[in-house]
Amino acid sequence: MIESDAFVQALQDIGVDFFTGVPDSILGGIIAELMERRIYVPAVREDEAVAMAAGAYMAGKIPAVLMQNSGLGTSLNTIISLNAIYRQPCILIVSWRGQHGKDAPEHLVMGEVMEPFLDLMKIPYRTLTEKTAVEDLKWLAETFMKQRVPVALLITKGVVKGLHP
Amino acid sequence: MRPEQGTMQSRAMAMAALMELLTDQPVIICNGFPSREAQKIADRPTHFYMIGSMGSAAAIGLGVALAKPKKQVVIFDGDGNVLMGMGTLATIGALKPKNFIHVVFDNEVYGTTGNQPTISNVVPLEKVAKAAGYVNVERVREREDLVYEFKDMLKKDGPSMLLVKVNEMVEDAGRVLLDPPDITKRFMQAIQ
Q1: What is the ipTM, given to two decimal places?
Q2: What is the pLDDT of residues A48-97, one digit of tens each?
Q3: Which chain A residue lies closest to B61 (C-alpha atoms)?
Q4: What stretch of H or E contains B172?
Q5: Domains located in chain A, CATH noted
Q6: Which of A26, A128, B73, B128 could disulfide-link A95, Cβ–Cβ 3.0 to 4.6 Å?
Q7: How many CA atoms are closer than 13 Å to the CA of B163, on its beta-carbon side?
Q8: CA angle at B78 for the pair A47 and B180, rounded to the nearest 5°
């Protein structure tokens, strides 16, 4: 399991310097670490977080937005009609609730359709694993810089230490 | 009948009056007619014209304001936009960016889609902003009040909201001419 502080440090090391989002339990450890470092701007909705990240990007930051995968639905229009058409990249750190159909009912549909949904939205994505973490983050930074579009890193349960391991 | 109807100025007139007072401040302008009118009045590289993502103007501006705390950031918003992204008033009120001036041109309609009524005739958005934690809020109608209050807000620490009651008149202004990626690039360079 990846420690939250190591994960946050790795994101900072690839240049991410603006963090916002809406919490999820899988992301709890990461958000606690970001708050301890006083670098987290809490948003009230995921589309707001994505728009805030777009503003920060235009002001010279490399932004990351943390969200539960349900937030992809909430952010859909902002990702399409702001980020995509204006070429404003951001890093989406998305927790994969409902993976393999094992979760509370509200997560099951998005958990199942998330990958085809991301494909359809033309959002490049990877699923973080402990083994490939260094490559995953390198890929994240390169895709952000080269393609200038939102790029997603999917976080499954138990890969990064949460608040209640 | 709208209680404040009568001598209201148009949004374009109000916007032009404010733009005269601005120099190199980043200005985020909400989608629909406001962006088109702003482009017609004076097209500046410090303008970020939204053409979609309705409801996001304040959030985009907040991102700029947080990333550039030494620059005063101005938002030209509309009542429909604010209502759609009303949660952002809370985020702004909680974070209290000092360099944030939120101008809301309130014509009580969705003008771009055919003047369907919003609900801002019964929901005073500046009071919502005040309750959410904005430091300064003012509601104005007359041009001289508008100019006076905006000048004052430029001198004060925010976040501030200036709600301007305007009529439904729309300038004959074409679509935003620049391609969106060029708007991004130009704006980024201008606010560096």
Answers
A1: 0.96
A2: 999 999 999 999 999 999 999 999 999 999 999 999 999 999 999 999 99
A3: A55
A4: none
A5: 4-155 (3.40.50.970)
A6: A26
A7: 23
A8: 60
